[in-house]
Every structure is written in structure tokens, then in C-alpha cells.
Design a protein that fits this description.
globular; 2 domains; Pantoate--beta-alanine Ligase, Chain: A,domain 2; alpha/beta; six-stranded parallel beta sheet; Rossmann fold; 286 residues; 10 helices; binds adenosine monophosphate; 38% helix
Length: 286
């Protein structure tokens, strides 16, 4: 496994693989890897001839009061995990390589970027889309793997790829949870033991929604209110949003029919956590 930190190092490798006709699979991450990230890596290994993982804590997707500076970073640990998975290349660029002095170009996916997490994190998806498009241009992957953990991100990136005719297939993969149901996240390291316990309320509220839906409840307002009631009973939790929306355009739904996304963001102490459940014609996934 090699590590490339410059555009030239990366391009040289990619070109060699392309010339050998190897299909390139790509997993973009911000590092501090866990089983959620590794599930994407394993899928790429299965489906591709060469797997590239990027590790880049992207300053453009953090708001001025957010956790960019303290976001957990540990390259040695990540490197060991990826080596074990048989990853071919880590792209680990410094900020100056991605955003040199005078950088001015941004990508926005109108409307979708302003909903759900976009409301409380203005500019977040502009930062995400910009870095992902840059990474796609650098890595030139055939397929790129993303987790449904970040459902809005998947929906926005799919739209970007469609709108800009990018020659890459976005492959979304299931959300991976800890043994007790908490969605895995690099940010879980911020939680104290009490907060870690309180954080289970996110998944519990989705379990409640699932039960209601399975017993025939279709009214989104009813489901939402019950979820809010449950979360509000947890003293360490403060709701950012709980929404039931269309899986394509993220518009609020009144009634749940074939497809829906139930998404929530909740502060547990100072840590903002997200989770979601998707209803598709194939069933409920969370
Ligand atoms: P991040 O490092 O948080 O930017 O995440 C990198 C990729 O891993 C994104 O596609 C995330 O959606 C995905 N990911 C993060 N957490 C999970 C999880 N618990 N289950 C599945 N995918 C995840």
C-alpha cells in the first residue's frame, strides 16, 4: 500500500492502473476510520481492480464555529487498518494541495443543499460537493462508495453526478451501527460515557418510528411528534431537526407511501449526531 500526498504522485499511480485496464474504486473519508468506513472499503475491494481511499479533513465543509480543529486525526491507526484491508493507495493531501492560495471555485447543488443538515450547517454541502468533485477529478474512479449514514450527502452527490455528467457511479451502502445500535461516527469519540448512553435515543426514536409504520401509521406528523416526545425526555439531548421527507427531493411528506427518509440530527451535550431510516419499496432500512 502506498500513500500519495501530491497531485503528481496520485496521477502517476492512477494513470498506470488505467493503462492496465484496472477498474478503480474510491472511498472518500475524513479519516479516524471505523467499521462504517471499512464496510465501504471492503465493497470496493470486492468490485474493483484497485482501491483508493482518501483521508482529508476538508476545512470547506466545516462552519466557523464547528469542530474542524479538534476533529479526530490518526494517520498511523488509519494506515494500519487500510493496510489490513488490502487497500492499494491512500490519498492524504495537505490542505495546500487541495486549496492552494487563491482557490476560488465551488460547486453547489441548489435547494437540496439547504434542507435538513443544510439548514443548521450553511455552506456544508457546498464544501462537500466541492471536495468530492475535486477528488473525483483527481482519482477518476469508476465507482465511488458512500454510506447511507449520511443520506442527504448521498442524495446530493447523486444529483451532482447526474447534473454534471460525471463518469462515475455512486454506490451507496448500508449504515453500520455499534453493538447497541448507535450509528458509528468518528464524532462518537467526543461523547462521555453518560453521553454515549444518552446518544442511543437517536436509534430508539427510529425504532419507534419503524414500529408505528409497521402497525399501519402513515401520518408523518403523528410519527414525528412521537419521535420528538421520546427524544425530548432525554435530558442530555437537544433536537436540531427530526424530519420525514421525500427520498428524492427531500421535501417534507404528509403521508408515508412507498418511499421516505426519516432523518434526524440531535445534539448530545455539545456533540451533534445524525441518524436516519429509509423506507423503500424493498422495506425499511436503518
Ligand atoms: P466521513 O469520514 O465521516 O466523511 O465518512 C466517509 C464515508 O463513510 C461517508 O460516505 C460516510 O457516509 C461513510 N460512513 C460514515 N459513518 C458510517 C456508518 N456508520 N455506516 C456506513 N457508512 C458510514
Amino acid at each position: 500500500m502506498e500513500i500519495a500526498s501530491t497531485v503528481n504522485e496520485l496521477r502517476e499511480k492512477i494513470l498506470a492502473w488505467k493503462n492496465q485496464g484496472r477498474k478503480i474504486g474510491f472511498v472518500p473519508t475524513m479519516g479516524y476510520l471505523h467499521e462504517g468506513h471499512l464496510s465501504l472499503v471492503r465493497e470496493s475491494k470486492k468490485r474493483s481492480g484497485a482501491t483508493v481511499v482518501s483521508i482529508f479533513v476538508n476545512p470547506k465543509q466545516f462552519g466557523p464555529t464547528e469542530d474542524y480543529k479538534v476533529y479526530p486525526r490518526d494517520l498511523e491507526r488509519d494506515r494500519a487498518l487500510l493496510e489490513k484491508e488490502g487497500v492499494d493507495l491512500i490519498f492524504y493531501p495537505p490542505v495546500e494541495v487541495m486549496y492552494p492560495e487563491g482557490y476560488r471555485t465551488y460547486v453547489e447543488v441548489e435547494d437540496l443543499q439547504d434542507k435538513l443538515c443544510g439548514k443548521s450547517r450553511p455552506g456544508h454541502f457546498r464544501g462537500v460537493c466541492t471536495v468530492v468533485l475535486k477528488l473525483f477529478n483527481l482519482v477518476q474512479p469508476d465507482e465511488a462508495y458512500f454510506g447511507w449514514k449520511d443520506a442527504q450527502q448521498v442524495i446530493i452527490l447523486r444529483k451532482m453526478v447526474e447534473d454534471l455528467n460525471l463518469p462515475v457511479k455512486i454506490v451507496p451502502l448500508p449504515l453500520v451501527r455499534d453493538h447497541d445500535g448507535l450509528a458509528l461516527s468518528s464524532r462518537n469519540t467526543y461523547l462521555s460515557p453518560e453521553e454515549r448512553q444518552a446518544a442511543l435515543v437517536l436509534k430508539k426514536s427510529l425504532d419507534l418510528a419503524e414500529n408505528l409504520i409497521q402497525t399501519g401509521e402513515k401520518n408523518a406528523r403523528q410519527i414525528r411528534e412521537k419521535m420528538i416526545e421520546l427524544i425530548s425526555a432525554e435530558p442530555l439531548a437537544r433536537i436540531d431537526y427530526v424530519e420525514i421527507v421525500d427520498l428524492q427531493n427531500l421535501e417534507p411528506l404528509e403521508k408515508i407511501a412507498d418511499e421516505a427518509l426519516i432523518a434526524l440530527a440531535v445534539f448530545i451535550g455539545r456533540t451533534r449526531l445524525i441518524d436516519n431510516l429509509r423506507i423503500t419499496t424493498g422495506g425499511i432500512e436503518k
